[in-house]
Amino acid sequence: MTVRKAWIVAGAALGAGLSFVMLLVVGVYVVAGNLANGVGGATKALAKGAVPAAYSGLVQKWGNLCPAINPALLAAQLYQESGFNPRAQSGAAAQGIAQFIPGTWATHGIDGDGDGDRDVWDPNDAIPSAASYDCKLASYVKDVPGDATRNMLASYNAGAYAVIKYGGVPPYAETQNYVKTITTLEESFAAPVTRVDPSKQAAAAITYAQNKLGTPYLWGGDGTAQDGGRFDCSGLTKAAYESVGVTLPRVANDQWNAGPHPARDELLPGDLVFFSDDLTNSRAIRHVGIYVGGGYMIDAPRTGAVIRFDPIDTPDYFGATRVTEDGAKALPTTV
Q: What separation, in Å, do the N-terminal and C-terminal C-alpha atoms of the chain show?
């Protein structure tokens, strides 16, 4: 869903080792802590590299514009809309990194960088405009009971009038799913403040990957009969989690957004571990493996190699994701 919603015109008018691994998995899962819950809150920081460096300062600054939004939430919206592509354009004429349609931009676009123009293609204008637009929606429904952020997101999807009418998130499946999607994606852009919940499917995903040890690498391989049972790096991680009912995106840099991000000293078996030549930009991730403990992962490294154990502590180590079922479901099919 994009900011091309035409209802806003009316709204504005209204003013409103396997055995060892398994033992380790069980042991650490018993003591793992919880991810801090909730949405909103101006102090929520971005996870390392979650937003491309060119835009992270803008997202951090403008994500604190009003209490109903935060930087991680704003990042989730931009990722959902365009994958941080400032030249994105949809078939419905939505434009730029924040996917405004011309009519909505004309009403709600702002000159974020103070250079005298309002350019929908310029992230320096479009990102501030997206934050300002969110806050304007929040102001329309400020007297509605419930969570201000969820009401704002529901207004973004269904219109402020519907939120006012129902006294909160309206009973529309699309709107409820939209609110859940963005607040779930928010977790993948936020720096965790406590240990994050372990994945229930992690041990079985490791088992799947371990059973593929020695399989030759194939660029673009998904492990199908047509591929001769071969994989590339993200094909392996996708298949491993698909074997336990969790559907991940095909490419590594989108798999990064399938859950929150534990620190290096908090890794658990089953976490996905990522590698990049640009440690400031998750969109530049080029490799992924499945962590098994002891500083090692199972991965499909490159052409000419086989699926194997490799160390993770290399200069290009980017970070890790603790895959969640909701996190994977929240990811857009295309960005």
A: 12
pLDDT of residue 92: 85
Question: Could you give the 3-state DSSP secondary structure of residue 328?
Answer: helix
> pTM of the predicted model, to two decimals?
0.82
SS3 272: strand
Q: Rounded CA gap, 106 and 100, in Å?
A: 9
Compute the distance between CA of residue 81 and CA of residue 122 in angstroms, rounded to an integer. Answer: 15
Q: Distances from the Cα of 152 to the Cαs of 159, 163, 209, in angstroms?
A: 9, 9, 42
| pLDDT confidence tier of residue 264, bands split at 50, 70 and 90 | very high
Residue showing tokens 């977790």 = 187
134 burial level (CB within 10 Å; 0-12, 13-18, 19+): buried
To 10 degrees, what angle do helices 53-62 and 71-82 make?
A: 130
Q: Which amino acid is at 285?
A: I
> Are 78 and 98 a contacting pair, CB within 8 Å?
yes
Q: Which amino acid is at 205?
A: A
Would you say residue 21 has pLDDT above 80? no
pLDDT for the residue 174: 93
Q: Which residues pair with 272 in a beta bridge?
A: 290, 321
Q: Match 């819950």 to its residue by tokens.
A: 37
- Residue 174, beta-bridge partner list: none
Q: Are 227 and 221 in contact (CB under 8 A)?
A: yes
Instruction: Round to whole Å and give the CA distance between 98 and 127.
Output: 7
